[in-house]
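Hi R.,

Here's the chain you asked about this morning:
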Amino acid sequence: MKKIRIALGSNDGKRIVPSHMGMEMKARMEIFKDADVIIGRKISPNFVKIATNTKFQPAVIETDEISEIMKEAAKNFGKIYDLIE
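And the predicted structure, written out as tokens:
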């Protein structure tokens, strides 16, 4: 079965953090080590580095609600999966 592991930042479990996650890159990589896709609300200067130098696929999304983000991810599962393979 195909699967995608998604990481995103939230302070309340309902909405994504409104800015980039602001941690140093090494700390992020440790937290996200099992993820395939990292979703953020704003593009981070490190997103290009992450996409180029790691196995992670960063994505910027305009939606704040995590439930809506997950619906969009499910709707676009095939496209996302092709990016991480």
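The chain is about 40% helix and 15% strand.

Let me know if you need anything else.
M.
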